[in-house]
Design a protein that fits this description.
binds FE2/S2 (inorganic) cluster; globular; alpha+beta; 25% strand; 3 domains; 4-stranded antiparallel sheet; Rieske Iron-sulfur Protein
Length: 368
Amino acid sequence: MLQESIPELAKMVEPDRVRKEVYTDPQIFALEMERIHERYWIYCGHESQVPKPGDYTTVQVGRQPMLMVRGKDRKVHVLYNRCPHRGNMICGDRSGNTGEFFRCSYHAWTFQHDGALRSIPMMEAGYAGTRYGKDNPDCSMKRAARVESYRGFVFASLAADGPSLLEFLGASKIAFDDMCDRAPGGEVEVVPNCFRIIQHSNWKIFLENQLDALHPSVVHQSTGRAAHEVEKDIAKRTGKAPLSYHMLSAFATVTIDKWDNFQTLNYPHGHCILTGYMGLRPKDPDTLAYEKVMHNAYGKQRTEEILGVNIHHVLIYPGLSVQSPLQQLRAVRPLGVDRTLTEIWHFRLKGAPEPIYRRSLAYYNLVN
Ligand code: FES
């Protein structure tokens, strides 16, 4: 039906131009939600966000408010954040611990951590003769059709059919391998808060910008210059310039023709890798101490392979941009045709020395 009302859908995109309706038409947006965001694997969060049974965090998948929760069996479940009785939202907070079970705040139905109905108060007196009851699966909180995680990063798909998470990720799984392998412990843990930014533009604008290597030396030049001034000032006062500022000042020193050397590698399902990065292997004492811990964990040869991975960031279509060498990711959540929420999360390398964490945290705060 929707497609019929947009008869020229196939002609909206040409090799060198795109019709503006692709970014502005609410009907096209609805179609994208139905066919892409509510069907593909969407990032929900990291397992370390819900370490204890009953811990939950809420998340938007397509148009659906969902929640990710740790069960008593230690499994991570992803449920629709909606009571099956009258549609009341179950968890109003962004995150928390629900205790032994979920309890709806409207008529007090309770649910297990996996969404299964636990009890209906006043069952006999209030609901006699209805189809309500434990035998009816519609009386349980609805679960995401599929949930899988890779190296601690949890994804859900609202479609029952489709490729497995690993098949879907394909080559783009390097985003998580690169981030986790840089930890001497082989794992990362979430830094428990994120930047939330609502952009008044279509979700695709953000993704396209992530792969636009021509803009940084122009758009971010003023940032680079300002960072360079601060960097010089700190160096003058302390004799040492912090690397976090240096990573920003590079925007002013890496010229547009050098950014053009960055390569975009495209993969099935729309995933892309933007290669190259500047100055991530300095020879300061903090980096050398970190490399020593890495040598102990992995041996010299494997450490060189890990630290030599040449990635700026990885785009996992349709909603994730991972900057693995700096342990941050951006989850893109479309809110409407012209409104997009971006959550920017930072991760800590387990087993890495504290100064390495402080440095990447400083960059995370500066760049965002
Ligand atoms: S709406 Fe949840 S118990 Fe009635």
